[in-house]
Amino acid sequence: MDLLPYPIGPLNPTVEHLLVAALLFGLVHTLVTRTLPRIHRALDEREDATKGAAKRADAVRERAEGKRAETVTVLAEARHAAARTRQQAFEEGAALIATARETALRERDAILAEGQVRIESERAAAEAELRVYVSELASELASRVVGERIGVQADNRAP
User: Fold this and answer.
1) 95-144: per-residue pLDDT in tens?
2) Is the dihedral of CA 63, 66, 72, 75 positive or negative?
3) Contact 112, 125 (CB under 8 A)
4) pTM of the model
């Protein structure tokens, strides 16, 4: 059965074809209306996942940059404190060396002065002892030079 009584060729649909087409259209429309929101929801979730991950990555990157800046600041402060400690230790070491040098110089001067005094006293004692024997030694030397025995005169001078 033709829907239009005019012969227009293949464009003239039959009622059966129209019913099948309407049923198929209804079925496709139902499927599309039920699956389209699910597809939209899946697409929205995917977009949220990708853009949300990018936003979370940006937030993590910002936190990491903040932590890095803090670390750089802490390291700079630590280097500064280490330099201060090194300088202070150098100054204390220099002061200790200067103090030790002064102490050593004082001790050296004291030892030298004591040695000089001891040398002078020992020289004086040796000189006094030698004065007693000088006449004997002189006569013995003269005897060796002359070849004859020369007598020693008793010289009882007190030094």
Assistant:
1) 999 999 999 999 999 999 999 999 999 999 988 888 888 888 888 888 88
2) negative
3) no
4) 0.41
Q: Which residues of 106-136 are buried (b: 16+ CB within 10 A; e: fewer)?
A: eeeeeeeeeeeeeeeeeeeeeeeeeeeeeee
Question: Positive or negative, the Cα torsion across 72, 76, 77, 79?
Answer: positive
Q: How confident is the model at residue 3 (pLDDT cuts 50, 70, 90)?
A: low
Q: What is the full DSSP assignment across the chain? A: -BSSSS--GGGS-BHHHHHHHHHHHHHHHHHHHHHHHHHHHHHHHHHHHHHHHHHHHHHHHHHHHHHHHHHHHHHHHHHHHHHHHHHHHHHHHHHHHHHHHHHHHHHHHHHHHHHHHHHHHHHHHHHHHHHHHHHHHHHHHHHHHHSS--PPP------
Torsion angle (degrees, nearest 10) of CA 33, 35, 39, 44: 60
Residue 34: predicted pLDDT: 86
C-alpha–C-alpha distance, residues 150 and 144, integer Å = 9
